[in-house]
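Dear colleague,

Following up on Tuesday's group meeting, I ran the structure prediction for the two-component complex that the binding team flagged. I've pasted the input sequences exactly as they went in, so you can double-check that nothing got truncated or mislabelled along the way. The structure tokens for the whole assembly follow below. Feel free to forward this to whoever is handling the docking comparison.

Inputs:
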Amino acid sequence: MPGGAAAAIVTATREDRRRVLAAVDAAASAQGLYPGMPLAQAQALGGGWLSVHEADPQGDAAAMRRLALWCLRYAPLVAPDRDGVGLWIDITGCAHLWGTETALLNDLVRRLSGWGLHARAAVADTPALAHAMARFAAAPVHILPPGASPPDLPVAALRLPADIIEGLRLLGFDRTAPLAAAPRAPLVRRFGTILATRLDQLAGRVFEPIQPLAPETAIQARLTFVEPLLTAEAFATVIVRLAGMVSTALERAGRGARALDLLFERVDGSVQAVRIGMALPNRDPRHLGRMLAERLGQVDPGLGVEAMRLLVVRANRVGPTQLCAVPGDDKAKVSPGPLAPGSLAPGSLAPGPLAPGPLAPGPLAPGPLAPGPLALDPASLDPLGLGTLVDRLANRVGSDRVYRIELVESDVPERSVRKAHPLSQGLVPHGLAAKKQARTGRRAAPAWPADLPRPVRLLDPPQAVETLAALPDSPPVMFTWRRVRHHVRRADGPERIAGEWWKREGERHAVRDYYRVEDESGRRFWLFRKGNGNAGETGDMRWFLHGFL
Amino acid sequence: MIPDSTLRWDRFYVHCMFPSIPPTGIPDPPPRSPGLPQTLPGMGGTLRDLRERVARIGRSSARPDGSAVLPFGLAPVDQALPGGGLALGALHEAASAGADTEHAAAATLFTAGILARMEGPVLWVLQQPDLFAPGLACAGLQPERILFVEAGRHVLAVMEEGLSQPALAAVVGELDGRMALAASRRLHLAAERSGILTLLIRRSRGFDDPALALPSAAVTRWRIAALPSPPVLPHAPETPGLGPARWRLDLMRCRGGEPASWIVEACDETGRLGLAADAADRSDQAPERRSA
């Protein structure tokens, strides 16, 4: 929760047709605001000092994930909470590294408060109990000694849906201790097994798995040689093997490489490195191998290379869209057999006595759904196969010099286009993709104006020319460019382009009048005059050559 | 004239057999009168047969669709080209004439017009970034189809790289100054292997640079010169305004064909050339006058 500022900060989201608060800070909470309150009511209560921001659940989740990654410094198993506002850290066997559990918690809270994060922390025997104590204990840092029985807590500590909590309140239960003492069967019949599961999890009678973040390990392959290698042919052979190894590892991880480092460890102890980048995640060993082999010329093997290491510097998950895009796939192969609806009751998925219940996905459920290694095909990300071409070209001339041109909504010619990523949508419309786009009606980007005459070559910056022209709106009779005089035989214009006063203050009155002119040889030019020919503030009436038509 | 030693014997053979076909390297062949019949009546069958045999020998790979062409849709031009259009798996060159040699605006529009009449992605290899994409759209080539590469000194290498990618429909390069015959031969062979239309826009700082006319392996070489356009309204010549541009289109070299020259209207917004209206009234071109 953000730090306490003078003004209260809340985030708002849309629920059906009204705006409600998604989160409130301490100051707002003190004013009686709570999440779920209609925004209008909150503003009426809060007056002018309420600072309202748009809720960003995805950003929150990403931040929580980053925080969880940071918490890996305390213990190897860290799991973000399912409600998105907490973290579980499994400190089993780690607390002694900080001396005591108290020291660990104090360190954690101190570091977090150093960033302006108000944190509450608790240590307990089970994840459920720690979750409850962190929220409902009086002290911000609370340690429940091992084996202690769960204290009496509000029913809200049970992580139950709001309607069950409301139902329990109607029955007169608002603390957990009387609830745990009450007969189970009527409660379960009324509210479902989840109530019993939560109570058992709190007491530690039922195991509750947490889903820890998998810390990312670098994918790499290394080969050492008996004899130092010196020749490019030998390196090329090794590259083929390394690329194959890395490709297998990437395939297993469901990823494609975006950047690769190939390190040559020389006998003199120094390291030479080449790096290649890919426009799209790729794990085709032939493509990777060819790109690496093209860079061999940059390597100085010195007295010999005794080991080579191929390291995936950046990798992206290759999306699930590829699951069904295998050429010639049949539905039977792709459909995950054991999980097909109806073939198996969901409850029977969990073997053994540790039934996680329907809410806890546990480590078992994703298994059969995870994409198998053969289900992925890098070619389907990029149906035309232009990704590999873009990679090869970018490695040859530099990635900023391979691009597509995109239209920008601006009438000023030099600002009307910009470079775009070579594989951004647009290049793709061809065959299947074009039909799909036509069907979905996407691609509402500005259309290329075919009716406005535009030059095919643009001079940047425009070059000043000397002209003989009548004011205010006649095309020049002749002009001199590069000391050559051109007599204008035919002309068309003006096309008036006003400055973008809404973006740039200096262009408030600026005007350019563009003329297409043809000289006596038939060559066509695109000229403009700064200013509208009447008012001095629109420009200084100088003429420029801007392009060739 | 003794052909360059890097030439293959079949080219030599062509020159010996048909002295009427000028050898490569003559800077500016005199434009022939348009519409001249290509073969004399009695010789047609033999000549065609011999040309086909020569074309088969010259082709490095036996591609089944090696004879695919892209017609211009302009009967006099298509008749002058063997196969009735621009051969797809081959190298073609275009250059502007006169003062436009440096910026090659007319040659670029001519190229864009060719590409506008085909489908699929295009690789456009630039030497310096002075191309203005909306201008291409005016000739019917949608810039979304184009992948641009600023290659600096590596234009030919990048083009060759592009020719290894069968998903491309065409590869365009812009080359400033001279090009070695061996380099053009290499590019042409790569184009032949891939079946991709390959176009080279030749540019130069100098007007009508003779370096642009040095021998090259391009199957066709075009020169586009701007001509003064006629008045917008022929009956009221004083009306201000600009009509379609007018070009003199010179086919300076054509393997298996003869040089020719036409006066055309520049590409319209769909990339089509048109016969110039007043030139079309001449008796030899009258039947082919564009209906549009």
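Chain B touches chain A through 57 residues (CB under 8 Å).

Cheers,
M.
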